[in-house]
Predict the structure.
Amino acid sequence: MDIKTWVTAQDASSSLGVSEETLHKWREVGYLKAGTHWRSATNSNSFPWKPEVIYHLPWCREEMDYWRDQDAPIIDKAA
């Protein structure tokens, strides 16, 4: 099975079982690190001041598993 590594926020949200807003909050509080877990897509259709964010799905899943093992309230974490 071929799994895409970098996926859209919508695909990451669906695959990880969380909302896109939760992914955004995790970026804001630092659970997901820029360049490692997420980055701006090189999409010529997005505006420079609001670039599309894409996520490295396996590394995001690994980070979620880590914080769940720590009993951290990652689903409800807000900025």
Remarks:
- The mean pLDDT is 83.
- The radius of gyration is 13 Å.
- Residues 36 and 56 are 7 Å apart (CA to CA).
- The beta strands are 6-8, 38-40, 53-56.
